[in-house]
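Whether sequence alone determines local backbone shape is best considered at the level of individual chains. For completeness, the protein is quoted in full, as a sequence line and a line of structure tokens:
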Amino acid sequence: MNTNNWTQHIQKFLFLLKDGFFELPYLSNSPQVMLDGLIKLPIVKHNPVQQVIVSDNALWKGTMRYRTIEDGFWILETNLSLNENIVAKANYTQDHVKDYYILSFSVFEYRFPVKGSEDIVLLSTCWTFYKPDTETATYFYKGTEGKFFNIAMNKQWVDKNLKSDKFCKKGVLERFFNSQKGFYTWLDIAPKAHVLSKKISKIMEAENQIHLNNAELRKNTMKLITEFFNNAFEDSRIEDNISLSNLDYYNVAKAEKIILHNLQSAFLGIELIASEVNTSPTKLKNNFKTVFGFSMLQYHKEKNMLLAKQLLQNSEIEVKIIAMITGFESASKFTAAFKKRFGELPSIFREN
């Protein structure tokens, strides 16, 4: 595909409904190519002076602010409110260079329905990192709203500004950045990121001071990058640096979607999920751990533990009911799992 036939591609695939999700394709060669492609969509309005793109349609409401901090270094802040299920798909044209890495930090709220009670508003926070020419599929769910920051860095900027000995032993980051495709996700690993992201939002929302605030924006964006890398070596994925095919990344995204849709049940099993995704269990198991750092079973458990933690914080639902909501056979098994994960009993956690 090249830029000239992007419009035809959009007409064919924009809002195509597949497996319960409306498709939103976008170009990911570089931030500029992405913006040029988004501006061509019939559902967006662009204000180049304020550097903002706005869309308000039947499927979602969204605002994207973008800033070029310096040559080869951008930050994009997107606020989304979903009326329907959306899957955003990264595409690449062959007539533009593909040399940007994207580091994304996202915080989304979603309403969790609880029988006999008002919906509970919960947070889902994660980091993703993907390398050039990696075709990713990101699922956004109806009824959720939130914000994500995409920090875009081209290879030349990375070579000049990111030195591996600042974060890890020499040579690790060079190998990580210089390898082929890659897409990795971490759950909420960097506590300071929430404060930093709020500072960045405040700077970017001051649309009448775009150029005056550039130095402050650069400082806080660099702090956000540093906060990520200071915490991203808890597992060995950056050091191992395994590259998968784009089809493998897409299958992993579909597997995650299946797990998230079934959190309230016992784990479905690798074989069943692999059958739904149409790949082999062994391959899917290995690829999933490469992307998420967890096995599929561990990921299911971790998501349920984070869900339970927020239910204890944000609701008065009884512990035994939370155990049922998060797929445990009994309150005692839930209590043991919660204490093992967070170091204290659910009742004590709620009191504190």
The mean pLDDT is 90. The chain is about 40% helix and 25% strand. The longest helix spans residues 296-314. The radius of gyration is 21 Å.
